[in-house]
Structures are given as structure tokens and as C-alpha cells.
Amino acid sequence: MTTIDSLTLQANKKSQLRNKMRQARHQLTQQVQTDRANQLCDNLKQWSVFQSADRLAMYLAQDGELSLDPLIKHCWHLQKQTFLPVLRPLPPNRLWFAPYHRSTKLQPNRYNIPEPNNTPQLNCRASQLNLVLFPLVAFDNKGGRLGMGGGFYDRTFEHLIHKNKRPLFVGIAHPEQQVSELPTEQWDIPLDAVVTSEKIFEFNTPAR
Ligand SMILES: Nc1nc2c(c(=O)[nH]1)N(C=O)[C@@H](CNc1ccc(C(=O)N[C@@H](CCC(=O)O)C(=O)O)cc1)CN2
Ligand SMILES: Nc1ncnc2c1ncn2[C@@H]1O[C@H](COP(=O)(O)OP(=O)(O)OP(=O)(O)O)[C@@H](O)[C@H]1O
């Protein structure tokens, strides 16, 4: 098989798994979502990694993702700085991280996810974040992850993978989103940990 064929096969496999895992989280009731968001917040509050971080990249949940809303409110209460991803307008598809606080005005991006107006002088450089919470579609027990398929997070953080000083990369997911093994590709950013509403998985990723 040529490399192109095997890449296409891999992409199809990922796309099928993505659809299946997205369907699974669409089935969760609003009550389950709310309870889990609170449990997730409790788990993170007790984790030393979260306690020592003061510049954190969050996301606003969509498509059945596990919500960070209780955690974000807790961060504001503690006066930690929180940032949200903003889609950069030009290729290659990367993200900016814009400040997010109680009075931040939001507007929908092209995927209908609310994001702050871009404020270049206030954005946090990727390398200056302490903790990045990645929205996951699936994860495995080695730090492999599957996102929405835009490659936004992979491209945004690729230059930091081998740096000693870089943010901690932590995936957030529902327990059902764990799979035995995900196909890995050269551009995939390995996660240092995954936190669900049930537990914290810490991985031994090479750069740390
Ligand atoms: N909450 C949240 N915010 C996020 C992300 C995320 O995964 N979750 N992103 C993580 O990268 C970025 C947005 N990336 C996204 C990539 C694809 C789709 C998506 O829904 N794709 C649709 C097709 C939409 C269309 O083309 O009109 C689909 O695949 O069905 C959404 C967000 C930045 N913000
Ligand atoms: N560092 C990179 N450089 C060039 N292309 C990339 C890079 N990272 C990802 N891509 C491209 O983006 C596409 C989507 O990647 P992938 O399926 O790994 O997305 P994902 O990890 O699910 O999405 P996200 O990173 O937004 O959560 C791939 O087809 C790949 O070609």
C-alpha cells in the first residue's frame, strides 16, 4: 500500500470513530451533563497541577462536550486568568487564546462556538499558558487523543512539544470517550493527562 493510501485509510478510521463517539455524547441527558461538569470541577480543584496553574486555556462546551463552566467560575473566584480559543482567520488553522472574564463579550465563530473578539495585545502566547484543557472526542490510555478533526490544537502547540518549558496538556472527556487505542499520527500532540468526571489519568509523556 502506498503512503497516501494508508493515510486515507487512517483518516477514514478516525472519522468513523469520531462520528461514533460524538453520537455517544449526544445521548447524555442535561442532568448527567450538569452533574458531570460539577464532578469534573471537584476533581480538578483537588489536583496540585490545577492548583498551581494561574494562566489556563479553557473552552466553551459544544456538541455534548464535558462543560468547564463550573471550573471557569471557580477560576474567576480564585483570580486565575482564563483564556478561550479564537480561530485565527487565515490558514494554517491555528488558535489564539484570548482573555475570558465575567464581562467578556462573545460572538459565534464559524462553527457556532462563542468566542471573544480577538484582542491581539491581550492574548496569551501559547508558551505562556501553564495549563491547556483540550476538548476531546476520544482518548486512550497512552495519552493519544482524537479531537474534532480540524487539527487546530495540533498546529497551535506543535512548536512546543519538545520544549522543556511548555504548558501541561490535559484532555477533558466523558468516561465513555475512553477507547483501548487510537491511531497516532506524526502531528498528534500527546497529552500529559486526561481528566474525566470520574478520575485523573496521568501519562508519562516523553517531553516531561
Ligand atoms: N468547545 C470547543 N471549542 C473549540 C474546539 C473544540 O473542539 N471544542 N476546537 C477544536 O479544534 C476549535 C474549533 N474546531 C472545530 C472543528 C470542527 C468543528 C465541527 O463541528 N465540525 C463539523 C462541521 C462544521 C462545518 O464545517 O460547518 C463536523 O465535523 O460535523 C467544530 C469545531 C476551537 N474551539
Ligand atoms: N502540525 C500540523 N501540521 C500540518 N497539518 C496538520 C498538523 N496537525 C494536524 N494537521 C492536519 O489537520 C488534520 C486534522 O488532524 P487530526 O485528525 O489529528 O485533528 P484533531 O486532533 O482531531 O483536531 P484538533 O487538533 O483540532 O483537536 C489532519 O488531516 C492533518 O493533515
Give an overview of the whole structure.
- Helix 2 packs parallel to helix 4 (69-77).
- This protein has one domain (3-202): NagB/RpiA/CoA transferase-like (Rossmann fold).
- The strands form 3 sheets. The chain has a 7-stranded mixed sheet.
- It is of the alpha/beta class and 208 residues long.
- It is built from 5 helices and 11 strands.
- The protein is 29% helix and 20% strand.
- It binds the ligand Nc1nc2c(c(=O)[nH]1)N(C=O)[C@@H](CNc1ccc(C(=O)N[C@@H](CCC(=O)O)C(=O)O)cc1)CN2 and adenosine-5'-triphosphate.
- Ligand FFO binds next to helix 5.
- ATP binds at residues 14-18, 145-153.
- One of its GO terms (biological process) is tetrahydrofolate interconversion.
- Its EC number is 6.3.3.2.
- Its cofactor is Mg(2+).
- Residues 7-34 form a coiled coil.
Given as residue ranges, the uncertain stretches (5+ residues, pLDDT < 50) are none
CATH topology: Rossmann fold
Mean of residue pLDDT values: 94
Please indicate the percent range of residues in DSSP E strands (runs of 2 or more). Answer: 15-25%
Spatial arrangement of strands, main beta sheet: 3-2-1-6-9-10-11
Global Rg: 17 Å
Structural class: alpha/beta
Number of strands: 11
Distance between the termini: 36 Å
Chain-wise SSE layout:
Elements: H1 3-26, H2 30-45, H3 48-52, E1 55-57, H4 69-77, E2 81-87, E3 95-99, E4 106-108, E5 114-116, E6 131-135, E7 138-139, E8 145-146, H5 152-157, E9 168-172, E10 193-195, E11 200-202
Helix pairs in contact: 2-4
Bound molecules: ligand FFO and adenosine-5'-triphosphate.
EC number: 6.3.3.2
Binding site for ATP: 14-18, 145-153
Enzyme class: ligase
